[in-house]
Design brief:
By secondary structure, this protein is mainly alpha-helical. The protein has 11 helices and 3 strands, in the order ααααααβααββααα. Strands 1-3-2 form a 3-stranded antiparallel sheet.
């Protein structure tokens, strides 16, 4: 039933849908489930290319057995600033993490980035991240290194000499520029292939078209990022 745990039959339908190349939204529609349910199920059980219904079902049962019994009173909600609904915040954080995973980030990396973006300060220490996510500091450190390589997080030391991991207004701009420049080597190599394969041959034409396409995309992305950069610093007016 929608809202309950996935059954083994539903997991088999998910596996068949993935094999047929269906989108998560279409699989979810056929199961009458939220798309986020199907997305989380696939991403936590091997991803779209390695998902196995039987293995996913057994893994879920093992996780359920490992969970501690919930007290009759239930867990105390974590206090939230600005009068926020703690349950709504937790639900949104899970959704944000799932979307970041679908965009290509590994699960722990997505959790760290989502956690940072949901803080008003936009920064946390390794120990604060580990405590909030209930993971080891080593896992946090590995995820941060991955994010630094993508220019999505930067680090600095605070007054207590602790390393803080920060998401600020300029990081998305820097990440877009880095992404555009990462294609430069591919463009150069494609054009070298034109010389090797001989101009006007089908293979050389294909490579030249790839180089021209990426050149155009890189120029467009860079120009758009420069023009839109000020949006990252805009503060919405309060109504």
């Amino acid at each position: 039933m929608p809202g309950g745990r996935l059954t083994q039959q539903e997991r088999q339908q998910i596996a068949l849908g993935l094999a047929d190349g269906l989108a998560y939204a279409e699989i979810a529609r056929r199961l009458e489930r939220p798309t986020s349910t199907v997305t989380r199920e696939v991403m936590r059980n091997g991803g779209p290319t390695a998902y196995r219904a039987d293995l996913a079902h057994r893994a879920t049962e093992r996780r359920a057995h490992r969970r501690r019994p919930v007290s009759s009173r239930g867990p105390e909600p974590v206090p939230q600033p600005h009068g926020r609904d703690a349950e709504a915040v937790a639900e949104y954080q899970e959704k944000l993490t799932t979307v970041l995973m679908v965009s290509g980030l590994p699960k722990m990396t997505a959790r760290v980035l989502g956690c940072l973006y949901m803080t008003d300060e936009g920064s946390l220490t390794a120990s604060e991240l580990a405590q909030r996510l209930k993971v080891s500091p080593a896992s946090v450190s590995k995820a941060v290194m991955f994010l630094e390589n993508l220019d999505l997080v930067r680090r600095e030391r605070d007054e207590r000499r602790r390393e803080r991991y920060i998401v600020d207004d300029d990081l998305w701009y820097q990440s877009m520029i880095r992404s555009a420049r990462s294609n430069d080597q591919l463009v150069e190599t494609a054009r070298q292939g034109v010389t090797v394969l001989g101009p006007h041959t089908p293979a050389a034409t294909r490579l030249e078209n790839v180089a021209r396409f990426l050149d155009f995309i890189n120029e467009s992305v860079t120009r758009a990022a420069e023009q839109a950069r000020e949006i990252l610093y805009t503060r919405p007016e309060t109504t």
